[in-house]
UniProtKB/TrEMBL annotation:
Species assigned in the record: Neurospora intermedia
Residue span of region Disordered: 34-54
Entry's localization field: Membrane
Coiled coil: none
Origin: domain of life: Eukaryota
Protein name as annotated: MBOAT, membrane-bound O-acyltransferase family domain-containing protein
Protein's membrane topology: Multi-pass membrane protein
Family as reported in the entry's similarity comment: Belongs to the membrane-bound acyltransferase family.
Keyword Glycosyltransferase: no
Length: 616
């Protein structure tokens, strides 16, 4: 019994439970992955990692026993320091007490002073409600709108696929319209207008103009919808000369009917990614006439993810109704993860083999555990309340400043992880398998390049498909190609910054991220793995030293972008170099990071020994 429980717990934290994309190459069909998942030779048959050779396990070596001792001291210390300054006994507690709310855990207060976090936490019951209601309504819809197949017809035939597509998308469009009205009220008309204009760009303009017009239009919307506070109706009416008072009154009334989420434009940036995806997928479809799965001799009911994303749908599927259903697909509408239009249409035709009841249940349990982790941190670490109280940071030690900043990054990670996981769980329950957004904990990253691949992964994949690859990717073999590659990286990350918010602080963050890429890329060329094949331990130690510097740079960049700006970063580093205590803490931190990164290396080697190379 005990072994069974332990085995079940371990299965919850398997990569395959998180997303089969992590254990199956993108070129392997999901049906084959499902058949070989329990086969001990399945990883090899599935064609996972074949390019890298895994090293022998180090978990039971004297070196790692030493690291375990460091963990036993460092990890509790990292939790204790922020907890200590969050206690009522701390003399600075009265300064930030007003930002705390009544909690439910062990008599502690809870820190929900971050407005975004407070909103997410308050909406979780509503998300669970929709997670139950929407799939049930789909079942009712199926009863009233059944698929009508000929007797003996295969459920995987093209006609059956069209019938499933019609049934699913008709419901998605219907429910999307209801959701849009409930969430945004009269602002739903603005969203519908923007969707219509974007659709006209894709379908009416000449093919060569579509990509440029799509980017210009959507970047313009991305910037102006926030500058003009969501395009208020009264603002437009005021532009009309001699507008009658009755029209102004109507505009004011419409502005007041904003639905449950009155600031629709705050979350519309995720929809903009879907608008761009549709337009570019449509444009590329016109370039690839004759590229259907059947003509490519592929089984359309068992496509690999690469084929689902890259193979265009039939032209008739690029209708406005299908586009609307995709753009407003309820489980993914507010926060993602991001699914391309081609992938959405493909999964509407044929349910992905990766969706299994046992796996979905385990994923749901994992969602609940993440939710509990967030609640635990908010009840025992009041970093947001301390920051909001504008404290005198000189009264805090370098260790306190650094670890409060460190945990603030973790709270940012958690407040993104919780809704992303819940919305993806909702989509899985509804029969759609979008990519997992968060592969690793924010603490389990040592590479700037790899961090970008594992953080908001669906967005990373979106930028690869629609920005990075169309711009030519990267090549650092010559000076000219290196300069062009840097421009490509800047274009990607400046878009990411603008997409998050129109804020100079985030632009600085994007420049810092690209600047921090360069030392890592240069180190890869200066110290290639092949030249160190005879000295693997020395190479591992050298990489770890570089990775420590990488982690310090990543913490600095994210403090600038998401944790208080340039001033916060300056205060952090000034504190670390202020006197012997700061330097001692920095030295101890580097040693702890060195040990932690060695463990991160070994985690990835353990994955490689199973034939899995996540490249992050």
């Amino acid at each position: 019994m005990g072994g069974g429980i332990l085995g079940f717990i371990r299965s919850i934290y398997q990569l395959d439970t998180l997303d089969t994309r992590f254990t199956t190459p993108s070129s392997v069909p999901y049906k084959l992955a499902a058949e070989t998942r329990n086969d001990p030779h399945g990883a090899q048959e599935g064609g996972l990692s074949k390019g890298k050779k895994a090293e022998r396990s180090k978990w039971s070596t004297p070196e790692f026993y030493l690291y375990y001792l460091v963990f036993l001291v460092a990890v509790p210390y990292m939790f204790w320091v922020p907890f200590e300054v969050s206690r009522e006994s701390d003399p600075r507690y009265p300064k930030f007490q007003r930002y705390l709310s009544d909690g439910w855990m062990l008599g502690r207060k809870v820190d929900v002073s971050d407005s975004q976090l407070r909103t997410i936490r308050g909406k979780i019951p509503h998300i669970f409600g929709l997670l139950v209601v929407q799939p049930l309504l789909r079942r009712v819809w199926k009863l009233f709108k059944p698929t009508r197949l000929e007797p003996g017809a295969s459920e995987t035939s093209p006609r059956a696929a069209e019938a499933w597509l019609e049934q699913r998308i008709s419901f998605d469009a219907f429910f999307g319209a209801i959701l849009l009205t409930a969430l945004h009220g009269t602002s739903g008309l603005k969203i519908l207008g923007l969707l219509w204009l974007n659709y006209q760009i894709a379908t009416r303009l000449p093919r060569k103009v579509v990509p440029w017009a799509t980017w210009i239009f959507n970047l313009y919307i991305l910037v102006t919808m926030k500058v003009y506070d969501g395009y208020r109706f009264k603002t437009f009416v005021n532009l009309i000369p001699f507008a009658p008072d009755s029209l102004l009154d109507l505009a004011s009334w419409m502005d007041s009917q904003q639905g449950l989420l009155n600031r629709w434009h705050i979350l519309f940036n995720i929809t903009i990614l879907r608008l761009i995806s549709f337009n570019l997928d449509y444009a590329w479809m016109t370039d690839r006439q004759g590229g259907s799965p059947i003509e490519k001799q592929l089984d359309p009911a068992s496509l690999s993810e690469r084929d689902r994303v890259g193979t265009p749908a039939p032209k008739s599927n690029y209708s406005f109704r299908n586009y609307f259903a995709y753009a407003i697909y309820a489980p993914l509408y507010l926060a993602g993860p991001i699914l391309t239009f081609n992938d959405y249409i493909s999964q509407c035709r044929y349910k992905s083999a990766s969706i299994e009841l046992s796996r979905t249940v385990k994923y749901g349990i994992r969602c609940l555990l993440v939710l509990f982790a967030m609640e635990f941190v908010l009840h025992f670490n009041y970093v947001n309340a301390i920051s909001n109280a504008r404290p005198d940071w000189s009264t805090y030690t370098p260790a306190q400043i650094a670890l409060l900043s460190f945990f603030k990054l973790h709270i940012i990670w958690l407040k993104l992880l919780v809704p992303w996981r819940l919305f993806r769980f909702w989509a899985l329950v509804d029969g759609i398998d979008p990519p997992e957004n968060m592969l690793r904990c924010v603490s389990d990253n040592y590479s700037t390049l790899s961090f970008w691949r594992s953080w908001h992964r669906s967005f990373y994949r979106w930028t690869l498909r629609y920005i990075y690859i169309p711009l030519g990717g990267s090549n650092f073999k010559t000076l000219v190609s290196s300069a062009y590659s840097i421009i490509t990286y800047l274009a990607v990350f400046m878009f990411v910054a603008i997409w998050h918010d129109v804020d100079f602080q985030l632009l600085v963050w994007s420049w810092l991220i690209v600047a921090f890429f360069l030392p890592e890329i240069a180190a890869g060329y200066l110290f290639p793995r092949k030249k160190w094949e005879g000295r693997p331990t020395a190479y591992r130690m050298l990489c770890c030293v570089g990775a420590v510097g990488n982690v310090l740079m990543m913490i600095s960049a994210n403090v600038v972008g998401f944790g208080g700006g340039v001033d916060a970063m300056k205060a952090l580093w000034e504190g670390l170099f202020r006197g012997l205590s700061g330097i001692s803490f920095l030295t101890g931190s580097c040693i702890a990071l060195f040990v932690g990164i060695q463990v991160m290396f070994e985690i990835r080697q353990s994955e490689l020994r199973k034939g899995i190379d996540l490249k992050c």
